[in-house]
Amino acid sequence: MKKMRAARLVEPQKMVCEDANFYEPVKGQVVVKNHMAAICGSDLHQVFFTRRGPKDFPGLPGWPGHEGVGEVIESHDENVKVGERVLTIPGGGFQRGFADYQTLPSSWCLQLPDYDGPEEDLLMAQQFGTTIFALRRGNMDFIGKTVAILGQGSAGMFFAWLAKRFGAEKVIVSDLSLARLEQSASFGADISVLGDPDGKGIREAVLDSSSGRGADIVIEAVGRKETIKQAIDIAGYRSNVVFFGLPDTNRDIPFNYAQFFMKQIQMYGVVDAQGEEDLKSFYTALDWIARREIDVTKMVSHRLPLESIDQALVLAHERDEDALKVTLTF
């Protein structure tokens, strides 16, 4: 059986790069030789706040990587040709992108458009596509509204850009990283606030900017209990709250139900963008990047080889060295 290098979660908070068996494709699947993969905030939750028991270790080779670009080297689908360069957006059961090769259904491979910039830019379309999907699901009116976004990882920055594109009057963002906040303005943020455990800073900024009304739309892009509670706290009357951040726990998270009820908040969670029937959100993301409607050239701050997977994850998690988006090369 063929071998490949792959990252594996061998214990909570620890991944290593080792030789692993190659996943043999079946009908309808393709094999992609990875050129590059990106670390997502949800990967960090899976690794550092894992809900796995002892019997679940080690994890599957390549898991939980799901943001990648590469070249098709074997195809069992007549509609996908060997040699095509693709963005890989694998869903459940196939999120194994932290490896030399991915074997996945062809439907989760999107051919890259013509683009004279680096392939790394197009890699950003995976995360970008999930944020487009999240807002399409809500069908919200952004025109003239005050929008608050908790978290300024790549997803939070994409939400800021989308809010402005869709007509928001004021976009207020918060994060614990000064480096990320410094980037936020280039993605549309009008006000950037350094986060705090009680959410005092973001609350004051939202109330000051909305004449005390609160935010019309709140997007939680962290997944921590603190920011989940803050999202409801800063939301205004008859507002909308979007929960995008992958929860870091399976336990109940208490929140002020009376506050939610009296404000008449509408809220929803978003996951599984790869289940979108036509994958239009991801195609739109690729198109906007390729046509340079959005500038993603400064989003990636660190590039490490696959062998340094553990270092790369710690870097992204701890935000050391002013880390923004961290990618892996093969």
Question: Short description, anyone?
Answer:
InterPro entries: ADH-like_C, ADH-like_N, GroES-like_sf, NAD(P)-bd_dom_sf, Zn_alcohol_dh. With 330 residues, the protein is α/β, with parallel strands linked by helices.
How would you describe this structure to a colleague?
There is one protein chain. This protein has 330 residues and is α/β, with parallel strands linked by helices. It has two domains: 3-124 and 296-329, Quinone Oxidoreductase, Chain A, domain 1 (Alpha-Beta Complex); 135-272, NAD(P)-binding Rossmann-like Domain (Rossmann fold). Helix content is 28%, strand content 28%. The protein has ten helices and 15 strands. The strands form three sheets. Strands 3, 4, 5, 6, 7, 14 and 15 form a seven-stranded mixed sheet that branches. Strands 10-9-8-11-12-13 form a six-stranded parallel sheet, with helices on both faces. Strands 1-2 form a two-stranded antiparallel sheet. Helix 3 crosses helix 4 and helix 3 (125-138) crosses helix 9. The two termini are 21 Å apart.
Instruction: Kindly report the CATH topology of the largest domain.
Output: Quinone Oxidoreductase, Chain A, domain 1
CATH superfamily of the largest domain: Medium-chain alcohol dehydrogenases, catalytic domain
Q: What is the CATH class name of the largest domain?
A: Alpha Beta
User: What general outline do the C-alpha atoms trace?
Assistant: globular
How many individual helices?
A: 10
Which structural class matches the secondary elements? Answer: alpha/beta
